[in-house]
User: What shape does this take?
Amino acid sequence: MGRPVTPGELRALIAAPHPDVAPLPPAAERPGGIRLLRGVPYAVPDGARPLELDLWLPGTPGPAPLVLFVHGGAWRRGLRDDMGVTTRAWEPGPFERIAAAGLAVACADYRLSGEATFPAPLEDLRAALRWLGVRAAELGVDPAHTVVWGESAGGHLAALLALTHREPRLAGAVVWYGPADLTTPRPPFDPADPATPEALLLGAAPGDVTEAAVAASPVRQVHRDAPPFLVVHGEADTMVACSHGRDLAGALRAAGAPVELVTVPGADHGWYGLEQEAVERILTRSVAFATTAK
Assistant: This one.
């Protein structure tokens, strides 16, 4: 037997390896040389569950441009590998299609509003970026070409991450129907209501915590050095008004930052109401943007 150890030493011995040095899980091989690594821990916030991401790595040679994908779910629920209702039956799925285009994709967990309030989810995404930079060489990804891409609540967080993460600056942001303003009434959102998803995110009605609501509003964080944005929003969105997308794009344009705005006639939230071919065209346009953004 070895020497006795102190409780602190024993705690360190039995703890799981730190995500920065933990072995990567075996990769599942997909067609075209794509590799899928599921459930890779990237951070362990104090007192919280380990946060994980799924990695889709393309079969192309050389460091691959990287997409950090942020799922939706009203900041309250959702799965990291879900791009929304209209893509769930796709075969191959949307992330495999993105990887087939030569982009690596990291689909990240973040703490939901029942676990921690803002800015916790934004801090988690910053931690994911840091981890991807630390492990970039063994993953074969290029952290200098990272585009953040989110849908719904994930689009909100993607926009905030792109606007507030200065070092290193992200290459671009793809925002699908994301809330951009948590300060102004926009039906069905009421900043005085303490029961909205936005209020649960902030821990109180946005109208009662105006400083936090401003900090959590992408439209209020815009600056001229923002990376390029692609903002795509359905004109018939009944959950997040299309004015969010228009106002975010307008603020970026007014600041002198590069932005493309695409509004989609007849599309409700999650692209509900669109034919599959139309959703596929939106994905294709978004992939093209992520490939060339810098």
The radius of gyration is 19 Å. The chain has a mean pLDDT of 96. DSSP finds nine helices and nine strands in the chain. The beta strands are 28-29, 35-43, 51-57, 64-70, 104-108, 141-151, 172-176, 229-234, 259-264.
